[in-house]
Amino acid sequence: MKFLTHLTRIASTMLFTATLSLPALAADNQLTEEEKSQGWQLLFNGSDMQQWRNFQKPDLSDKWQIEDGAMKLTAAGGGDILTKQQYQNFELMLDWKIAEGGNSGIFVLADETGNMIYSHAPEIQILDNERHSDNKLETHRSGSLYDMIASPASSHKVAGQWNTVKIRLDKSTITIWQNGVQTAEVTIGSPQWQQLLASSKFATWEGFAKAKAGHIGLQDHGDQVWFKNIKLKELK
Question: What's the pLDDT score for residue 26?
Fold first, then answer.
């Protein structure tokens, strides 16, 4: 009995020590002290969407709502939305969840000179890979640099589960991770980029990915989609 008690005490001590060594984790839509010191800023605080507006409009559709601490597109017709601010070199992190059969996307370098938010903006795909008809092309599955670089299957989760995406845009090099797996990396304007562009639907789209800075955008593709923990760090 004494031996078992001794083992229990050792186990408790080890658990306590391990707990102390774990990094501090912020609650949803908050920053840790370390993230604050590193320059991260929230683009959504869980209670309002003041940093967002609709594409080519000054305000935000009421079909974009807050539900359980997440930004939710409740129905088709809410319209694509973008950040009020523009960014050039940055790291962006967010969590997304898509409804069954759903489709959406994350845009970088978005401007408002074209007819649509995607006229000039590269897209990181959001998709129900199992049910949506766009799953036939590998470059159209979630985490892909849409129609250009396909994400590996190891980065995919089923619809209804939360996914974490990280996007780094630094001196025209865009790197994408989904659920801890790197899904794409390419320098905009490089020979590799030009080859990918020539083989994509964007080959003849004038002005595509030409901007050095732009808005972060979220897509209304007609399906319910959720976003939370949206944060960005500008790079020097």
Answer: 75
CA 145 to centroid of chain Cα atoms: 12
Is residue 37 classed as helix, strand or coil in its secondary structure? helix
Please state the domain extents for the chain. 29-234
The band of 94, judged by pLDDT with boundaries at 50, 70 and 90, is very high
Q: What is the pTM of this model?
A: 0.89
Burial class of residue 56 (count of CB atoms within 10 Å of its CB; 0-12, 13-18, 19+): middle
What architecture is domain 29-234? Sandwich (2.60)
What the block records as the tokens of 161 is 């589960």
Q: How long a stretch of residues is the chain?
A: 236
Q: What is residue 152's three-state secondary structure?
A: coil
| Residue 109: CA count within 13 A, CB half-sphere | 24
- Residue 127's nearest CA partner among 160, 94, 175, 79 is 160
